[in-house]
Design goal:
By secondary structure, this protein is of the alpha/beta class. Helix content is 40%, strand content 12%. The chain contains eight helices and seven strands, in the order H-H-E-H-E-H-E-H-E-H-E-H-E-E-H. It has a seven-stranded mixed β-sheet with strand order 1-7-6-2-5-3-4, with helices on both faces. Strand 3, helix 5 and strand 4 form a beta-alpha-beta unit. 36% of the residues are buried. The model has no long low-confidence stretch (mean pLDDT 91).
Length: 251
């Protein structure tokens, strides 16, 4: 007997009182037309403004945009610019990405409204937030990518203690998806410590090769999770160090 086919996902209709949860649980291509138009306008506006201010560029861009495989993107985190560049680059090449953000931002309904329209998904840090994991898995199953910052917050100095949140590997494992490392340098220089003013600067990103589960050569789900958690961020920091060597003095 053939497996029962999954019912197609319904498109959200404009002006029908869609909740924030509706957006979290629906594929981006099924967002209402006004939301999709809003995202397109936001992408082009953010690209123009951020390129003017910080002249960012992506090394190995083809590894990021030519691969249409749903995957979990992991990245170091220095500023709010980081997710903007990834969203812009992928959207321009027809790839939709769901950014995982900390639920503390949901204190403001305006912020939550904006995040829902750009496809972001909240996570409650410090908890086993399985709702966020399930939403990420569903996104991967639909063919979307998931972007997550395992450092959990913006890191402004190498002296800051960093706790790596390993939930990204569980998302990837449940979604049968590879993990792709991406690194950024120069983002810390956008705002100087103790200041909220944005400075003109240069920012560079570098994309690495996706890490597949088969390449880990580890058996057992728990062992694979631990191996992927280490391999993913080790690759991010290796790419970051390469960028720092290429651009001395930039963090």
């Amino acid at each position: 007997m053939s497996a029962q086919k999954k019912a197609p996902e319904k498109r959200l209709r404009a002006f029908h009182g869609n909740s924030f949860d509706d957006y979290f649980d629906t594929g981006m291509r099924n967002f209402p037309l006004p939301a999709r138009i809003f995202l397109g306008i936001a992408v082009y506006a953010c690209m123009a403004w951020t390129q003017f201010r910080w002249r960012w560029s992506v090394e190995n861009k083809e590894k990021l945009v030519d691969d249409k495989t749903p995957r979990v993107l992991v990245m170091n985190h220095g500023s709010m610019l980081d997710p903007v560049i990834i969203i812009v680059q992928l959207w321009l090449h027809g790839i939709r990405v769901r950014t995982i953000y900390k639920s503390e931002f949901d204190k403001s309904p305006v912020v939550t409204w904006f995040f829902t329209r750009v496809g972001a998904i909240p996570v409650q840090r410090g908890t086993a937030d399985m709702k966020s994991v399930r939403r990420a898995k569903a996104a991967l199953d639909r063919g979307e990518c998931v972007l997550i910052f395992p450092e959990g917050t913006r890191i402004k100095s190498d002296d800051e203690p960093v706790t790596i949140h390993e939930g990204y590997s569980l998302m990837a494992q449940l979604g049968h998806a590879p993990v792709q490392p991406v690194a950024i340098v120069g983002a810390r220089d956008i705002t100087k410590r103790g200041s909220h003013l944005h400075h003109f600067s240069r920012v560079w990103l570098k994309a690495g090769d996706p890490i597949t589960w088969d390449s880990l050569d580890v058996k057992g789900r728990k062992a694979q999770l631990a191996a992927m958690s280490k391999a993913g961020m080790d690759a991010v920091y290796a790419l970051r160090d390469e960028l720092r060597e290429e651009h001395p003095g930039r963090m």
